[in-house]
Amino acid sequence: MSGSRFEALQSIDRRWIFLALAVAVIAALVVQPVFRDSPGELVVPIFAAIEALAPGTPVLISLDYSPSSAPELEPMAAALTRHCLIRGLPVTYLSLWPTGNHMAGRIVERVIGPEYPDAVEGREWVTLGFQAGGELLVHALLDSLGSRFAADVRGIPLIEIPALAQVTGLNDYGIVVSLSAGTPGLKEWVLYGGDVGAFPLAGGCTGVGAPQFFPYYPRQLLGLMAALKGAAEYEAALNDDYADRVPRVMQATRGMGPQTVAHLVIVAFILLGNAGLFIGERRKRGRR
Amino acid sequence: MKRPTPQILLTGVALILVVAAFMAPPGDGSSGGFAGAVTYADRHFSSWFGILAVFAFLLGGASLLRTHGRRVRERKADWHYSAVTLVSFLAVLIVGFLKLGGPPGLTGDPTDASSWLTTIFDSVLSPLHATLYSLLAFYVASASYRAFRARSLETSVLLGAALIVLLGRIPVGVTLFRFDSLSLWLLKVPNTAGQRALMIGVALGVVALAVRMVLGLERGRGGDGS
Amino acid sequence: MSPVHGWNVALMTLVLVTLVAIGIRRARHGHTAAVRTLPGIATIERAVATSVAAGRPVFFVPGSRDLDNMQTVAAVALLEPVAAMVAERDGRLVVPTNRSMVMEAARTACRKGYADAGCADAWHDDQVLYISDDPLGFVAQVDGMIVREKPGACFFFGFFASESLLLAEGGRQVGAIQVAGTASPVQLPFFVAACDDTLMGEELFAASASLSGDAALLGSLRGQDLGKMVAVSLLVVGGIAATVATVTGWGFVHDMAGVLDVLLETR
User: Fold this and answer.
1) Which of B55, B57, B52, B218 is nearest to C109 (CA)?
2) Which of A215, A165, A211 is nearest to A195 (CA)?
3) Which of C120, C146, C153 is nearest to C48 (CA)?
4) C58 and C177 in one domain?
5) Residues 6+ apart with CB under 8 A from A232
6) Do residues C23 and C126 both lie within one domain?
7) CATH code of residue C200
8) How many domains does chain C have?
9) Architecture of domain A44-248 in CATH?
């Protein structure tokens, strides 16, 4: 191989990288390899906290994401919903993002409807939906949900909803989980909710956003589902304890196949670039 | 001071909110006096932001219509894109306002499964969002290829950390190299240390900027920089 | 909430505010502070000059969040001197925004920047555009504009989420000189990989003060640094006290570590 070829390894046209990644991911989507995961150190505390709640204890899930980040975060919402419904914990969905109502609708349509046909809206779950305000909304909800939500998305007053019978403010929830793709999201829940209130707070986030939440674990965040892998770990925990009541292969576990392939392609290109650099430098030194 | 009224408003509201954040007693602020004022601010200023945000939506919509309307009218370069923007904006606005296909009336849920807005959301907005977001994977791949080169000791450490985290977050890397614990350690210890240092610096920067604004020194908003 | 909730946070806030105020007051009384030149600031000047000389526009994106985000405020503050820089060289500035309140603030900043440069007549409000509140819709249009208008310089300052890499790669594709600045730690690696220079964390908040050269603003940076020294001192003392208390079991060191823990804990 000539020196120029090694140099070429250092400056591969980005379109070749795009093509290689696309081909690899499409192939993985077609073949659908399944890689089993196991619950990790950050996910176990969330699963255990929900497991420890007495039946009937309300749980709040804040769907702070949009369709773009749904592939990473929706599996977390689905897994948490399954766990709560199996355990008999009424779920409240709200959102700091305008797209939250639709995100909640998708969970109802894709998980609750098909898998738990006996679950009744208002009793097993309630959707309060989106409200503007971000951190100010979180702050206002601490004392009273009614200060910002007069009714759920169907227009039914909060006082008439059985799922909220025990709830006045955030402190009445057994656990609050924010599934967050950015701002406003988990950080606002930590700073204006969890730090000020007296309720356990956990979170889920995209892979890109994960590093910024590690400083909050474990004192300000009970646990953290980081990226698709975090969701896959929660699914693994569900499979371990409730194998007969949840699908065998769920969304995140299925998604880990293409993700694995994508990581390997990126690693391969990084190594190629460095091989070019390393061999090129050695040849240059040899010529001198 | 060239703009005293906005500056007085900014300073006043900022001070009230800071005091309220630490001192608001329980209740609804109806008790009167200083405690009542800060409690009222603590409870109700958040609602005011919601109202302001709604008017800001109107301002943005009006600006969009004006800017793109002029482009189309004057047949400026790339006016076709502006026409598409206008048609899309008005179509979604009308569908949403009239709650077409869904439960009618003021209390009708515009995001009901039967509404046209939901159909537009699911079949247009969702795929567009997913497409744009997935571009990130391609850009991350090419940027990683460019950035992670072992040219020096520092960049070699960066490269090593990147490979460990990339492989530690996938089952293959865990099975073959047992990188899961090391990857988690990198995220929990060195990453957290760096993040905390950045957070402390940013918090101090925010405090300094806030003080400059409250004192009317900062450019851009409120102050005139003089 | 109880009265004086989070007294320790209130105390720390008071200390920091006092330090910044002292820094400003001292600067006004002639005690000027030497501030290092941020490499990113120098690159901004070079990028504007190069872009205008090549007859290409300059793009300035003030983040993707509203004015209630302090990073957006810092970005708008920085926009004013950048607008003056572009106006002085008779260049064209384009400012895409994704919040209408930011659009209004950006127009005010640009108007003032152009007026400061003695070119008030050259400014048109249309150069600040409102695109969309939706971050990805915003990115799609700005990337399209970048590809069509081929700016010579792109500046990305303020809060960004996933938009960071999408925007910066767009600018890189057309060969623009790019400077970014954000206090969002997770986006910094993307900007570092795709831009020529990056203002990291607190540098974003210091940039407008540094660029203005105003003594009072520079004094606030001095106060900010004093605050950082307090934070670092508490960290070091706390770290040593906790370690010594664990290793030796000495009661008074344990008490000291306990006091620091109460002073600094948030929940």
Assistant:
1) B218
2) A215
3) C153
4) yes
5) A37, A75, A252, A253, A255, A256
6) no
7) 3.40.50.720
8) 2
9) 3-Layer(aba) Sandwich (3.40)
- Give the burial class of B176: count Cβ atoms within 10 A of its Cβ; 0-12 exposed, 13-18 middle, 19 or more buried: exposed
DSSP state, residue C38:
P
Q: Looking at the structure, do residues C126 and C221 belong to the same domain, yes or no?
A: no
Neighbours of C3 (CB within 10 A): 13
Give the C-alpha separation, C209 to A137, whole Å.
Answer: 32
Tell me whether residue C192 is in a domain: yes
Q: Are C44 and C159 part of one and the same domain?
A: yes
Asked if C109 is an interface residue toward chain B (Cβ–Cβ < 8 A), one would say yes
Residue C45 lies in a domain: yes
pTM of the model as a whole:
0.85
- pLDDT tens track for B51-66: 777 787 788 888 889 8
Contact at 8 Å (CB) between C205 and B218? Answer: no
Tokens found for residue A33: 């390899």
How far is the alpha carbon of A150 from chain B, nearest alpha carbon, in Å?
A: 11
Q: pLDDT truncated to tens, each residue of chain A (288 aa)?
A: 555 677 788 889 999 999 999 999 999 999 999 988 889 999 999 999 999 999 999 999 999 998 889 999 999 999 999 999 999 999 999 999 988 998 999 999 999 999 999 999 999 999 999 988 788 889 889 888 998 899 999 889 999 999 999 999 999 999 999 999 988 899 999 998 998 889 999 999 999 889 999 999 998 999 999 999 999 999 999 999 999 999 999 999 999 999 999 999 999 999 999 999 998 888 888 877
Instruction: Enumerate residues 6+ apart whose C-beta is below 8 A from B201.
Output: C201, C202, C228
CA distance C14 to chain B (A): 10
Name the residue with tokens 């829940």. A189
Question: Which amino acid is present at A189?
Answer: W
Q: Which one-letter DSSP state was computed for residue A236?
A: H
Same domain, C51 and C123: yes
Residue C49 lies in a domain: yes
Residue from A187, A195, A205 whose CB has the most chain C CBs within 10 Å, to mutate: A195
Angle at C234 between CA C228 and CA C239, to 5 degrees: 125
Place of tokens 């969304």: A251
Instruction: Find chain A residues with C-beta within 8 A of C6's C-beta.
Output: 196
Residues in chain C: 267
Question: Residue B37: which residues within 8 A CB-CB, separation 6 or more?
Answer: B16, B29
Q: Is B218 on the interface with C (CB under 8 A)?
A: yes
Residues 6+ apart with CB under 8 A from A263: B166, B167, B169, B170, B173
Q: A68 near A36, Cβ under 8 Å?
A: no
Q: Is A181 on the interface with C (CB under 8 A)?
A: yes
The verdict on residue C263 lying in a domain is no
Q: For chain B, how big is the Rg over CA atoms in Å? A: 26
Question: For chain A, which residues make up each domain, given as ranges?
Answer: 3-32+257-287, 44-248
Angle at C154 between CA C36 and CA B71, to 5 degrees: 145
Does C200 share its domain with C68? yes
Whether B222 shows a pLDDT value over 80: the answer reads: no
Percent of chain B clearing pLDDT 70 (strictly above): 89
Q: Do residues C56 and C91 both lie within one domain?
A: yes
Report yes or no: B10 and B214 within 8 Å, Cβ to Cβ.
yes
Domain that holds residue C223: 7-34+216-257
Provide the chain C residues 78-97 that lie in CB contact (below 8 A) with chain B: 78-81
What are the residues whose beta carbons fall under 8 Å from the beta carbon of C51, sequence distance 6 or more?
C57, C58, C91, C151, C152, C153, C176, C177
Q: Quote the minimal CA–CA distance from C187 to chain A in Å.
A: 8
Co-location of C61 and C115 in the same domain: yes
